[in-house]
Structure formats: structure tokens, C-alpha cells
Amino acid sequence: MSRALFSAALQQTRGEQTMAMSTIASFMSKVPNAPKDPILGITENFLKDPSPQKMNLGVGAYRDDDGKPVVLPSVREAEKRVSGTHFMEYLPIQGLKEFNSESIKLAYGENADVIKNKQVAVVQSLSGTGSCRLMAEFQRRWMPGSKVYIPQPTWSNHHNIWHDAGVEEVIYREMKIIRTSNKKA
């Protein structure tokens, strides 16, 4: 291919790319921004605060006094125990059977009646958002007319997940439990 022909083809490709990018930008300008997430807003406020004594109570990640991430010793121990011990292939569609089994024991207690009576279904999924999406689609398909109860506050994407699946949402305020002393007056 001659240099002039290559240059002409390259200019045409660049022109098509510019047009495509313009079309994408035009399309995206019509897509509204998602509402600000109130929980992530806590971290935004933390980052703006000049106080040296501030503490981030937003996203659940442990930090040391210098603001650097802390990995708990129990997590490091778990990494050592698991690293290299599992075959790194695709899992069955329900996930890793042993992980699922241990997860329901952790959630309900090892000797819970719901486990003994096989009243619990479990699948492994990727992340909390992925789990919510799976459940929303399950509800839409297999439990039509059911509702999801979502606490306020919650992550803003939770509302969209169930809305997009067509599942009715009921919002409730989380309760504060105040402990009182058992001492007699």
C-alpha cells in the first residue's frame, strides 16, 4: 500500500471515529446522572473536612492512623489457607458448594432448623450488588407481585436494581435499638 493511500485511509478512519464519538457524546448527553449516593456522600464530606481528628464512617474499610488501608490478621490468615488450594476453573452455576454450605451455617447457625429442614436456598454470586440483581430477577420471574423491603438509608443503586426488575419497593427506616441497664434502681 502506498504511503498516500495509507494516509488517506487513516484520515477516513479518524473521521469515522470522530463522527462515532460525536454520536456517542450526543446520545450520552440525554442520559441523566444517577442521584448522588447518600452513603458515598459521607466519604465526600470526610475528604472535604480539614480536621486532623476526622474519622471516615462511610464505606466499611478499616484504616490506620495515617489513613492507609488495614487488612485484618484474620483476612491474611484466610488468604494463606485458601491460596493455591482450589482448582481455578469456572465454578458450577450455583457457586462453590462448600462455600455455600458454610455461608448458610454462618448466617443461620450450624444447627438451625431451617438448614436441617432444607428450607434455605443459596447461590454464590459476585458482590453485594450482583447478589441484589440476582434476587431482583428471581423475584420478577418466580415471585410476581412480591415486594422488596429496603432500609433507608441504603446504597442508591439498590433502588434501581429492583425498579429495573419491575419489583415493587417498600422503604422503611432502620430502627435504632437503645440498650438500657438491667440494674434495679
Structural write-up:
- The chain is mainly alpha-helical.
- The protein contains seven helices and two strands; from the N terminus they run ααααααβαβ.
- A two-stranded parallel sheet has the order 1-2.
- α7 links the parallel β1 (about 145-150) and β2.
- α6 (about 125-140) packs parallel to α7.
- The longest helix is centred in the N-terminal third of the chain and has 26 residues, at about 5-30.
- It is extended, with a radius of gyration of 25 Å.
- The mean pLDDT is about 80.
Structural class: mainly alpha
What is the averaged pLDDT score? 81
Roughly what percent helix?
Answer: 40-55%
Strand order of the largest sheet: 1-2
Radius of gyration: 25 Å
Number of strands: 2
List the helices and strands and how they pair.
Blueprint (H helix, E strand, L loop, with lengths): L2 H26 L9 H11 L24 H10 L14 H12 L4 H4 L10 H16 L4 E6 L3 H10 L2 E6 L12
Parallel strand pairs: 1-2
Structure in a nutshell:
The chain is mainly alpha-helical and 185 residues long.
Salient structural properties:
single chain; 185 residues; mainly alpha; two-stranded parallel ribbon; 7 helices
